[in-house]
Design a protein that fits this description.
heterodimer; A: about 250 residues; alpha/beta; Rossmann fold; nine-stranded mixed β-sheet; two-stranded antiparallel sheet; about 25% helix; globular; B: about 400 residues; alpha+beta; Butyryl-Coa Dehydrogenase, subunit A, domain 1; Butyryl-CoA Dehydrogenase, subunit A, domain 2; Butyryl-CoA Dehydrogenase, subunit A, domain 3; 3 domains; four-stranded mixed β-sheet; four-stranded antiparallel β-sheet; 11 helices; about 50% helix
């Protein structure tokens, strides 16, 4: 089966994010950018499915600026077979990305789309679910285990208070949680091989998708500075303060 | 702004840098505390056999092997620009490990080795199965090869070598050394020939181990009627010096990159301390003295990185880079020395303990200011070339 893996270009998880001086967003100029870690887990899972003989072809897709090719190339170095870049410079909201992905799914006809449960930049946690709704496919979100089960896919989900197992009819959408796997490093020989793998570039307009934002960002600001804590001298004083000041007991 | 985000010449270079950075973070950094403790308690600046084996296996798995080795020898044949990025990342960890093989000798051998030498020495060396060392300096002849007195005399189909070499690194583990010896009476570097001498050749004696600062060790070697087959002459007779220069220029590029890696680590640690440490109610980060340390470090790291990239690109293009190599060698080592020193100062008493890597890196850079040509020799060379001086 063919597997589609959408990957998002985000500010690297090691970078301390800064808000732009004019409050319109976060600073991304000259900042190290990487593949969204949840999407890395998705690529790893797709590659494992291919190694098990379940997947036959892996297509990595990114919607974003031309530099998002870097993230596609990383996916190719991890084991994806080819890439599609949907080039767009402005804001892309989850619904726009879901529509783009739907258009590509219609064209490519994959049996599985596997993607991160959310991106670490805006933490929307929406694209996978929206895509499932647009396609009318089943979805297994927050996956911590994915297994082929006959014609179905058995997905273990991390839910509040435990694990839930769902059986999905293919084609389906899976979104990945942190504990699904530990992504491999792209080894040097695979980095070299990735050079020769093709990346196709299209525009949202070519796919007939209108990506005009539906939301307006009013202001972005940094979280309030954390107040310094208080030191207490004894357990008695601690209990006293918890009761009278914090009012939690 | 992220000044640690250098311009990448290619996607491969960028991805290689990411790969090496991950390797350093996940495989090398966790070893650092144990390595520092071992060194501080007299166990030497080294890895245990087990640690080294694990790292080598990891490198093999990730393909971090023979980065600039040609494909015909099973290497990745990356441009030196990529090698520089890898070196820089590797140097952030104070752990005695390099991605095999040690490449400077490789470049000299690649340029001049005979078919026989390629099969016997270069092949296993390029695969990382053999190690080598390079013996140039002598007591009384270091940066200036004119004083070299080790002599090789032809005797039938052998050369007989007599003399003494000093400050040679990597000797005990080297399967062969490249030895420079006089075979003719030319001026300065004329008449110097390179020989491949195998470990265990009769007359090749490791005289003593010399402990150096920074946990390093070098060796003094004695050659007494050491007979080397004529086929072990590496390159042209009497013209061994120029190919050796080729080795040195790559080496200086690597040293420059390593200095940047160490300085980056020092700056990271300086930043961490400056943001956390409060004295008399003020964070160090808000004190001008410390801000200037940081500013100096950022500017110098940036300048040196541009020099490394320029040198690497020119080396890849086959240009004569002696001037660029000299400039980088002096500037990068002195830059790293100063940044490390300021980082230690920022950390106060903690900075001069053997629990932090700063002191060991500081000593290692101190050493780097001397080997592969002391700063003063390079400064003289730069000045002489500029002014047309004679000496």
């Amino acid at each position: 089966m063919k597997v589609l893996v959408p990957v998002k270009r985000v500010v690297d998880y090691n970078v301390k994010v800064r808000v732009k001086a004019d409050g319109t967003g976060v600073e991304t100029a000259n900042v190290k950018m990487s593949m969204n870690p949840f999407d890395e887990i998705a690529v790893e899972e797709a590659v494992r499915l291919k190694e098990k003989g379940v997947a036959t072809e892996i297509v990595a897709i990114s919607a974003g600026p031309s530099a998002a090719q870097e993230q596609i190339r990383t996916a190719l170095a991890m084991g994806a077979d080819r890439g599609i870049l949907v080039e767009h410079d402005g804001t892309l909201e989850p619904l726009a990305v879901a529509k783009i992905l739907k258009a590509i799914v219609d064209k490519e006809g994959p049996a599985l789309v596997i993607l991160g449960k959310q991106a670490i930049d805006d933490d929307m946690n929406a694209t996978g679910q929206m895509l499932a709704a647009l396609l009318g496919w089943g979805q297994g979100t927050f996956a911590s285990k994915v297994e082929k089960d006959g014609d179905n896919l058995k997905v273990t989900r991390e839910v509040d208070g435990g694990l839930e197992t769902v059986s999905l009819k293919l084609p389906a959408i899976v979104t990945t949680d942190l504990r699904l796997n530990e992504p491999r490093y792209a080894s040097l020989p695979n980095i070299m091989k990735a050079r020769k793998k093709p990346i196709e570039t299209v525009k949202p307009g070519d796919l007939g998708v209108d990506v005009t934002p539906r939301l307006t960002v009013l202001k972005v600001e940094e979280p309030a500075k954390r107040q310094a804590g208080k030191k207490v001298g004894s357990v008695q004083e601690l209990v006293e303060k918890l009761r009278t000041e914090a009012k939690v007991i | 702004m992220d000044h640690n985000q250098p311009h990448a010449a290619s996607e491969e270079t960028r991805m290689l840098r990411d790969l090496v950075a991950k390797f350093v973070e996940r495989d090398l950094m966790p070893l650092e505390p144990a390595v520092l403790k071992r060194e501080a308690t007299g166990g030497g600046f080294k890895l245990s056999e087990e640690e080294e084996k694990t790292l080598l296996a990891r490198c093999q798995e990730l393909g971090l092997w023979g980065l600039d080795v040609p494909e015909e020898f099973g290497g990745a044949n990356l441009p030196l620009l990529s090698l520089a990025a890898a070196e820089e990342e590797m140097a952030r960890a104070c752990v005695p490990f390099t991605i095999p093989p040690d490449s400077p000798n490789l470049h000299m051998m690649l340029s001049v080795a005979s078919p026989l030498q390629r099969a016997k020495y270069l092949d296993p060396y390029a695969r990382g199965e053999q190690r080598s060392a390079m013996a140039i300096s002598e007591p009384g002849a270091g940066g200036d090869p004119a004083g070299m007195t080790t002599r090789a005399v032809k005797d039938g189909d052998h050369w007989v070598i007599n003399g003494r070499k000093i400050w040679v690194s990597n000797v005990p583990r080297a399967d062969f050394i490249i030895l420079m010896a006089r075979t003719g009476d030319g001026k300065r570097q004329d008449g110097i020939t390179a020989f491949i001498v195998e470990k265990g050749t009769p007359g090749f004696v490791i005289e003593r181990e010399i402990p150096m600062v920074g946990g390093r060790r070098t060796y003094e070697l004695v050659f007494e009627d050491c007979r080397v087959p004529a086929e072990n002459v590496l390159g042209e007779l009497g013209r061994g010096y120029a190919p050796m220069q080729l080795r040195l220029n790559v080496r200086r590029m690597q040293m420059g990159a390593r200095c940047i890696g160490m300085a980056r680590r020092a700056l990271e640690m300086m930043t961490e301390q400056a943001q956390n440490r409060v004295t008399w109610g003020v964070r160090l980060a808000d004190r001008q003295a410390i801000q200037w340390f940081a500013a100096e470090a950022v500017m110098e790291i940036h300048a040196c990185r541009l020099m490394v990239q320029d040198l690497a690109a020119k080396l890849d293009a086959g240009a004569d880079v002696r001037m660029e190599a000299s400039i980088l060698k002096v500037r990068a080592t002195e830059m790293a020395q100063s940044v490390l020193d300021n980082a230690m100062q920022t950390w106060g008493a903690m900075g001069v303990t053997k629990e932090l890597p700063l002191q060991l890196m500081h000593q290692q850079v101190r050493l780097m200011r001397v080997y592969e040509g002391p700063s003063e020799v390079h400064r003289s060379a730069i000045g002489r070339r500029t002014l047309g001086g004679k000496v």
